[in-house]
Specification:
heterodimer; A: mainly alpha; MetI-like fold; 12 helices; about 75% helix; B: Rossmann fold; six-stranded antiparallel sheet; 8 helices; transmembrane helix (chain A); Lactose transport system permease protein LacF (chain A); transmembrane (chain A); cell membrane (chain A)
Chain lengths: ~290, ~350
């Protein structure tokens, strides 16, 4: 038995080694770094230096506010959209199902830089298709990237476009696992399709919806690409700066690794806390 | 309560015809069982009555009203599914009342109906539980309860006991029988288990490959099957089929020679025209219709291969050339494996079929 265990660990060793060096050690190391003042040479142990700064830093609270705002608006909208897409994909009336499934999933595999560039072009003040469309229906064009609210809207639209299809595919798997005869029983009970959706589909899909929501919460807490590339480093004037972007700015522009580590742990802690609250709120009654 | 009438009902899936013109009259308050092997179209027929499958041709009437284009919920039927189809996220009580609540049925009436169903099925103490907290038998009771609260004219059961173990199946069979007596409503029940069909039905509809082979009371089908398929399907263990050839006709009787039993001959009186001399036929003998040597009209020698002793009776699986026969014996006369034995066939307790399987009477 012991010999078999040793063999198993020898096979696991390459993975465990790589995991330890590139995952485990950075996790521990960054936690230790968050208690050090890293703008001095050599670094010195100062337990309250970064964490104390965090509590009083307006840039941190601005980034936190922006991140939570995106989370509160974008995640529910995207999940709702994903549910609608999944239901459409699951409909027996839909033709060319494979094509739609591919189309919904495709944004995930598009390169982040490429899609960000396309979104910048689409929302361009003078040449963007969005403003052209607004003009064509008699609405004034919007300067998407010079004002905070439209810039936030662009980020939310972009993130939703990229991830709604991905969530829809996960939800579709959930939909397909609901037995057909449950719907047949409801049909015999004279329950309309709409009521079937709200009273049968949604409750039975709840564990999958919660799973998608938790994934999205974690993703949004780490949001970086869109505010970095689409709204040009959290612009205008930090109006779309997220925690991920603040971390990058502190860690890799200012080389303040201690503070960046404290921000990273705050992001992780928030993601875990919000996810736990979400799981608790949507738990199954005993 | 209502009668159910099927006239030339056809079902096609694309180019494949699954049900080829079914004609069935189910009387008001009758318990009719559709029985047949897998894929014979029995469940499809039931689902067409329920309205869950479209009809490709023919007419279905419930309570004298044509329901071809009537929505399932408006047909006055309730269905119990093989997989129970309970709403997993609802308690038993919510499962029972869901349909009524969704349709704005008065609360007091809903409560009355749910209470009555719970009392009939003895599930009152389970009302707060979720389906996953119930045993298979309890789930099936809830599924039947959900049908009862609808107070339907016709109950439809789609293989409701096939997911239960043998003991529970017997118990639920009795319960369904009791329910039919208590409610007195029309019930149509689909099963592939001929024992269920025999024990539950007022009348059985035997289906095979989308065709109705015979409709009749259980014992009528057992004693007087229309063809070899029905003779083989109804009865457990199955009827034995012995290859034979007509060697002569003698007035209103035919004489057949058993092909695998050393030239043993049986003179079988017939009411109709006898088959031609030389025709290949099949003699059907039920396991309990093999008698002790000399007691019947034709003796055959067999070698006991395997014996199953069930207590009250024993079943002897015996070989005679290429034919394997199942012979029923009283327990006191049980045989050991390897015994040579001689059994006797009575002309009056055997059936004759032609090569196509049609009965020769």
């Amino acid at each position: 038995m012991r010999y078999q265990n040793a063999t198993a660990y020898r096979f696991l060793a390459p993975y465990l080694l790589i995991f330890s060096i590139f995952w485990l050690w950075p996790i521990i190391s960054s936690f230790l770094i968050s208690f050090q003042a890293t703008r001095t040479v050599p670094w010195r142990f100062a337990p309250t230096f970064n964490w104390g700064r965090l509590i009083g830093d307006p840039a941190f609270f601005n980034a936190l506010k922006n991140t939570l705002l995106i989370l509160v608006i974008q995640v529910p909208v995207m999940i709702t959209l994903a549910i609608v897409m999944a239901v459409l994909l699951n409909s027996p009336l839909l033709k060319a199902r494979g094509l739609f499934r591919f189309a919904f999933f495709a944004p995930v595999v598009v390169g982040e830089v490429a899609y960000s560039a396309v979104f910048r072009l689409m929302f361009n003040l003078d040449y963007g298709i969005i403003n052209k469309l607004l003009n064509s229906v008699g609405l004034p064009r919007i300067d998407w990237f010079s004002n905070v609210t439209p810039a936030m809207a662009v980020i939310m639209i972009a993130v939703s476009w990229r991830w709604a299809g991905y969530n829809a595919i996960i939800l579709l798997a959930g939909l397909q696992s609901i037995p057909q005869d449950v719907y047949e029983a409801a049909t015999l009970d004279r329950v309309s399709k709409l009521k079937q959706f709200f009273y049968i589909t949604l409750p039975l899909l709840k564990p999958i919806i919660v799973f998608c929501a938790v994934l999205s919460i974690i993703g949004t807490m780490q949001l970086f690409t869109e505010p970095f590339l689409i709204t040009e480093r959290g612009g205008p004037g930090g109006g779309t700066e997220t925690l991920g972007l603040l971390l990058y700015r502190q860690g890799f522009k200012s080389l303040n690794f201690g503070y960046a580590s404290a921000i990273a742990y705050t992001m992780a802690g928030l993601a875990i806390a919000i996810s736990l609250v979400q799981l608790w709120l949507t738990r199954d009654p005993k | 309560m209502a009668a159910v009438t099927l006239k030339n009902v056809v079902k096609r899936f694309g180019v494949f015809e699954i049900v080829h013109g079914a004609n069935i009259d189910v009387n008001d308050g009758e318990f009719v069982v559709f029985v047949g092997p897998s894929g014979c179209g029995k469940s499809t027929l039931l689902r067409m009555i329920a309205g869950l499958e479209d009809i490709s041709g023919g007419e279905i009437a419930i309570g004298g009203k044509l329901v071809n284009d009537v929505e399932p919920a408006d047909r006055g039927i309730a269905m119990v599914f093989q997989s129970y189809a309970l709403y997993p996220h609802m308690s038993v009580e919510q499962n029972l009342s869901f349909g009524l609540r969704m349709n704005g049925n008065p609360k007091a009436d809903t409560e009355r109906r749910v209470k009555r169903a719970a009392e009939i099925l003895r599930i009152a103490e389970l009302m707060k539980r979720r389906p996953r907290q119930l045993s298979g038998g309890q789930r099936q009771r809830v599924a039947i309860g959900r049908a009862i609260v609808r107070e339907p004219q016709v109950f439809l059961f789609d293989e409701p006991l096939s997911n239960l173990d043998a003991e529970l199946r017997v118990q639920m069979r009795v319960e369904i029988s009791r329910l039919h007596k208590e409610l007195g409503v029309t019930m149509i029940y689909v099963t592939h288990d001929q024992t269920e069909a025999m024990t539950l039905a007022d009348r059985i509809v035997v289906l095979n490959a989308g065709n109705i082979e015979q409709i009749g009371a259980p014992l009528d089908l057992y004693d007087d099957p229309a063809n070899r398929f029905v003779a083989g399907f109804v009865g457990s263990p199955k009827m034995n089929f012995l290859a034979a050839q007509v060697v002569g006709n003698d007035g209103n009787a035919t004489v057949v020679e058993l092909a695998n039993h050393g030239g043993a001959r049986l003179r079988k009186p017939l009411s109709g025209a006898p088959p031609a001399v030389g025709a290949e036929v099949v003699l059907g003998v039920r396991p309990e219709h093999f008698f002790e040597a000399g007691e019947g009209d034709c003796d055959i020698a067999v070698k006991a291969d395997v014996a199953e002793h069930l207590g009250s009776v024993s079943y002897i699986y015996a070989n005679a050339g290429p034919e394997e026969l199942i012979i029923e014996r009283e327990a006191s006369r049980q045989r050991a494996t390897g015994d040579h034995m001689v059994v006797s066939i009575k002309a009056g307790q055997s059936l004759l079929f032609d090569k196509s399987g049609a009965r020769i009477r």
